[in-house]
Design a protein that fits this description.
Distance between the termini: 41 Å
CATH class: Mainly Alpha
Oligomer: single chain
CATH architecture: Orthogonal Bundle
Strand content: under 5%
């Protein structure tokens, strides 16, 4: 809002310039998820053993790797599909 208030330009331009756009590119998210799964085999094993908290930990790692820009609903869907 600060950028708009200061007359810094259009909303989309401000979002892009400040790196605030949400990441929803499936290919990019799948790469991040693959990297997180490879780096966290213990959490993957725990999730497959029925520990739901392990799934939440993996989601957190994906969000951290994307610097909070990943679409959380999409991360959940893609991660569940990868873990099946």
């Amino acid at each position: 809002f600060e950028g708009l208030w200061e007359g810094a330009g259009e909303v989309d331009a401000i979002i892009e310039a400040r790196g605030l756009r949400q990441m929803s590119d499936t290919g990019e998210l799948e790469k991040i998820i693959d990297d997180v799964l490879a780096a966290n085999p213990k959490s993957v094993e725990e999730f497959r053993a029925g520990k739901e908290k392990a799934f939440n930990a993996l989601v957190g790692q994906v969000m951290r790797a994307s610097k909070g820009k990943a679409n959380p609903a999409q991360v959940n869907d893609l991660l569940k599909a990868k873990l099946q």
